[in-house]
Amino acid sequence: MPRKPIIAGNWKLNKTVKEAVEFTEGLKKVICNINRAILPEVVIAPVFTSLYSVNEIIKGSNCIKLSAQNCYWESSGAFTGEVAVDMLKEVGCSYIIIGHSERRQYFCESDEMINKKAKAILASGVTPIICCGETLEQREAGQTDSHIKSQIEAALKDISEEDISKSVIAYEPIWAIGTGKTCDSVEANRVIKMIRETVKTIAGDNAANAIRILYGGSVKPSTIEEQMSQSDIDGALVGGASLTVESFAGIIDGCMKVKA
Ligand code: 13P
Fold first, then answer.
1. Would you report the helix, strand and coil content of the chain in percent, each value rounded to 5?
2. What are the pLDDT digits (tens) for 168-214?
3. Which residues are known catalytic residues?
4. pLDDT attached to residue 98
5. For residues 99 and 26, what is the distance between their CA atoms, to the nearest angstrom?
6. pTM for the predicted model, two decimal places
7. pLDDT, tens digit, for every residue of 126-156?
8. Residue ranges lining ligand 1, Cβ < 6 Å
9. DSSP code of 223?
């Protein structure tokens, strides 16, 4: 069965509640009339404070799905400042992004923490979007594949084949994030194939064929068609270009041109 593409917008630390609501109403008008059979899975990841209001707009429409940008692995207790998976589920999240390079870099998230988050997310029936990617130094030192392989092995440690097959991975080379320097599509596809091979070794053929692996890093309406034409790229995790309806809808449109 072909894998359903995903176009996900990671808003990072952007948009007030008012701005998030305006965006969501605008996007809904543009994409919700499109035949669901050709529309990719469209996901938006606002900041925590906007999740409830955004969900009020999209619930029931089934054309836009909601993601959080982070979570904690415990369900309650003395963990000041954290948000539990079930709380995110309660406000409509069906996805949670984990292990983004910005969280690893600025908030000291380790592979072990990311594995705990992945397990907690899957235990609640939510889908993790597990990010991985190399720095420019690692790429130049020829360590891209070994680094990513170890990030994936650590993130998926002790997770069942069934849960792995439902998960999503995003390959985001750090040097391509927010820089305008998109990774060459053929190279992105090569790394993504390598990630799929790694999943195959861990969880077998079925999981490797089912798991969706996205590319992220300076994705724009002008790059998406070439990216989606690659054999193993199942969609995009978009930062900057997901912040206006026009460019995000342009990316969704480009995806449909190739995959519909
Ligand atoms: P940009 O699309 O702004 O490069 O960000 C990519 C990203 O980090 C998405 O998670």
1. 50, 15, 35
2. 999 999 999 999 999 999 999 999 999 999 999 999 999 999 999 99
3. 100, 172
4. 98
5. 29
6. 0.98
7. 999 999 999 999 999 999 999 999 999 999 9
8. 10, 100, 172, 177-178, 216-219, 237-241
9. T
Q: pLDDT digits over 227-238, tens only?
A: 999 999 999 999
Nearest protein CA to atom 1 of ligand 1, as residue: 239
